[in-house]
Write a structure and sequence with these properties.
The protein has helices at about 10-20, 20-30, 70-75, 75-80, 90-100; strands at about 40-50, 55-60, 105-110, 115, 120-130. It is α+β, with helices and mostly antiparallel strands and about 130 residues long. Strands 1, 2, 3, 4 and 5 form a 5-stranded antiparallel sheet that branches.
């Protein structure tokens, strides 16, 4: 039995509705002028709860035939934190709505990009919780 009280709220299907795959194309369209020029797809994934924080990852999956170079992804926390298409304020608001009366999101921050492999980089999203 899971001790994570929020795991059932943040399923893959729910997170795909909150951060749909089309948002990656819209991001590259706004940033580069053409979605086909983007080198990765962005996926929002729940990574658990601890220390009164919800942990999510923005997973950057390399697109076929593209290069997911570190120099492309290390500056992303600053870009993602304020880009209107990525809209992390809106994402956190929707996550907060799912919490209902149990808790509320009081603050969020992005961590440094982590290279898991040549094909996968992760930008951690941490959300501090307050009482509901």
């Amino acid at each position: 039995m899971s001790t994570d009280p929020y795991a059932s709220l943040f399923t893959a299907a729910t997170l795909t509705r909150i951060f749909p795959p089309e948002r990656t194309d819209a991001f590259f369209e706004a940033l580069l002028g053409d979605a086909d020029d983007g080198s990765y797809d962005i996926e929002l994934v729940y990574d658990g709860f601890g220390d009164n924080q919800l942990r999510f990852d923005l997973r950057l999956h390399q697109r076929p035939g593209k290069c997911l170079a570190c120099n492309l992804t290390y500056g992303l926390p600053q870009v993602f934190s304020r880009h209107p298409v990525i809209n992390l304020d809106g994402v956190v608001d929707r996550l907060d709505q799912l919490l209902g009366e149990t808790a509320n999101c009081v603050d969020w921050q992005l961590g440094r990009t982590r290279e898991v492999s040549r094909e996968l980089h992760i930008v951690p999203l941490r959300i501090s919780l307050g009482s509901g």
